């Protein structure tokens, strides 16, 4: 009977060890799966961030192109205005010079 109790205790201890081993194995599997999921999440976030960055760059590029066009048009308007002013001043200067010449010859 004592040998039967010892055998039962040894079987119970072996079952406990098997349960502990299975639990450790399951715990390692859970940790491994969690790490894999974490890596996958990080990779997805990195892809999302890269795509968002590309979209921001494209948006800013369009904004810059619009600003460049606006500045080009403004420069063109300024150039036309300055050219018009220069012509007007040139015409007035020519008229003034002609008047001075006519007066100076007219007074002789």
Structural topology:
Elements: H1 2-106
Fold and architecture overview:
- This protein is mainly α and 108 residues long.
- Helix content is 97%, strand content 0%.
- It is built from one helix and no strands.
- The protein has one helix at residues 2-106.
- The radius of gyration is 46 Å and the shape is rod-shaped.
- The termini are far apart.
- The model has no long low-confidence stretch (mean pLDDT 92).
Write a brief structural summary.
The chain is an all-alpha fold and 108 residues long.
* Sheet having the most strands: none
Instruction: Report low-confidence residues grouped into runs of 5 or more.
Output: none
N-to-C span: 157 Å
Radius of gyration (CA) equals: 46 Å
Beta-strand proportion? under 5%
Structure annotation, total helices: 1
Oligomer: single chain
- The 3D shape can be described as rod-shaped
List keywords for this structure.
108 residues, 97% helix
């Amino acid at each position: 009977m004592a040998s039967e109790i010892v055998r039962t205790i040894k079987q119970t201890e072996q079952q406990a060890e098997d349960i502990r081993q299975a639990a450790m194995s399951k715990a390692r599997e859970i940790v491994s799966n969690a790490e894999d999921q974490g890596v996958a999440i990080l990779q997805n976030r990195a892809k999302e961030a890269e795509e968002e960055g590309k979209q921001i760059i494209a948006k800013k590029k369009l904004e810059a192109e619009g600003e460049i066009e606006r500045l080009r048009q403004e420069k063109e308007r300024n150039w036309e205005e300055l050219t018009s002013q220069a012509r007007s001043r040139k015409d007035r200067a020519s008229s003034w010079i002609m008047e001075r010449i006519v007066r100076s010859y007219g007074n002789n």
